[in-house]
Amino acid sequence: MKDNEREYRTGQGVPVSGEYLCQSGAKARLGENDTFPVCPVTNDESTWTHHHATIDDQSKEQPK
Question: Which pTM does this prediction carry?
Fold first, then answer.
């Protein structure tokens, strides 16, 4: 399994700084050696995957 497909659980250490998605689809910017938090939507334990921005994601974040 590639690192960008790996799932992490609440309480595990963050291996690489970046943006992560929880199983509810909420995004969180986490730093290396932070701890994966609970889901910000459900406030329950969650799984997280490293989110790699796409061109479409980046265009949505550009100020108009």
Answer: 0.75
